[in-house]
Design goal:
173 residues; alpha/beta; Rossmann fold; seven-stranded mixed sheet; two-stranded antiparallel ribbon; 5 helices; 28% helix; globular
């Protein structure tokens, strides 16, 4: 199945010059979504790990589905101020601004191994934030999984972990 045909492209969003890759059509189509999860699970199966960590919000959809399919746990990396209780935070730069992700204190037992998941790997900022959150919380980040990687941005170079993706797309289309 050609998953690329299920990726929408929104030019000049969230700001001029950015070509937003929309996974909503993929999530809406049960066959395409299942295919993406099956392919991501095949990649994840190469690793000995305990849990997935997904970034809000689209990383939740892929991470929770993968966790259920593979019998693993799932930790939500939430936007700042969305989690109750004590949290661990990391602020990072995006290609169009900055953001903060948080996990609950105690989200990881010391040494628990995690795979990081999101819909898109661009500059690597979100994955780097998840990596640092896992480490600060006592876990061990192993690798990154994305549905899409943007080839011109080379975000994997900023992360320092193995990175895997299903689609390699140009930032301009």
């Amino acid at each position: 199945m050609d998953l690329e045909k299920y990726i929408g492209v929104v030019p000049d969003f969230p700001k001029k010059g950015i070509s937003f890759k929309d996974v909503s059509p993929l999530l809406r189509d049960k066959d395409a979504f299942k295919e993406a999860i099956d392919r991501l699970a095949e990649i994840a199966g190469q690793y000995d790990f305990d849990t997935f960590v997904g970034a809000e919000a689209r990383g939740f959809a892929f991470g929770a589905a993968l966790a259920l399919k593979m019998g693993k746990g799932f930790v939500m990396a939430r936007k700042s101020g969305k989690l109750p209780g004590k949290t661990i935070a990391y602020t990072y730069t995006l290609e169009y601004g900055s953001a903060t992700l948080e996990v609950s204190e105690g989200a990881f037992e010391k040494g628990k191994r995690a795979l990081l998941i999101d819909d898109l790997l661009a500059t690597g900022g979100t994955f780097l934030a998840m990596k640092e959150l896992v480490k600060k919380a006592g876990g061990e980040p192993l690798a990154c999984l994305a549905v899409i990687a943007l080839e011109e941005l080379h975000g994997e170079e900023a992360i320092g972990l193995p990175c895997h993706h299903l689609l390699l797309l140009s930032d301009s289309h």
